[in-house]
Amino acid sequence: MELHDTKQTMVQLMVTIFLFILATGSSWAQSSDDVSWAKRVDTGSQVVTTMQFYFHDTLSGRNPSAVKVAQPQSSTNSLGGFGSLLMVDDPLTEGPNKNSKLIGHARGMYGQAAQNDIGLIMVLNYGFTDGVYKDSSFSLLSLNPAMQTVREMAIVGGTGLFRLARGYALARTYWIDPSTGDAIVGYNVTITTYI
Which of 25, 73, 91, 191 has the fewest C-beta atoms under 10 angstroms from its C-beta? Predict the structure, then answer.
């Protein structure tokens, strides 16, 4: 009887392992679609997404990604050009290098909204083109106190996987050219959406 019990236990163990692999195999397949720059966690009633990517804002050269579309009629003595408005189509990449994988674009505008320091009002849509986030976007509407090391900005909505999004973005300047204003900014984003 002992040999029979051992065989039966082994068969039960093998069936259990097979069922475990079968049950979790679909989640393994789904995780292969995940991207290295973002992670989604389902808490049961909502999904929390964390992302890290880089925003490339180029004001110089033959093909700038940010162009001035308005400025005050009279000259101002403000620190950052109070009243100036720029329209942007900035690439978003996986890493800080300009040749890093393109994962989307930040499109919209920002303007100098502070008279005595550099405070940019950001009205941008961050649209993604990579992995499960393709065709999803979030909207940021917030003041960016650009001279602070880390800036926190509000996420106020989104589309696709980010429908009804709320959250925040922490921005940190990775590189800036003081003569042109060109900059690379690292973003750490936390977004909560309903299931």
Answer: 73
Element (H, E) at 26: helix 2-31
| H or E element that contains 148 | none
Q: What was the pLDDT predicted at 73? A: 82
| Separation between Cα atoms, residue 86 and residue 66, nearest integer Å | 6
Largest CA distance in the chain: 98
- Helix, strand, coil shares of the chain, percent, nearest 5, are 20, 45, 35
Smallest Cα–Cα separation from 183: which of 154, 156, 147? 147
Rounded Cα gap, residues 3 and 5, in angstroms: 5
Cα(191)–Cα(43) distance, integer angstroms:
13
Q: How far is CA 10 from CA 13, 19, 25, 129, in A?
A: 5, 14, 22, 48
Who wins on pLDDT, 144 or 1? 144
Q: How far apart are CA 164 and CA 179, in angstroms?
A: 40
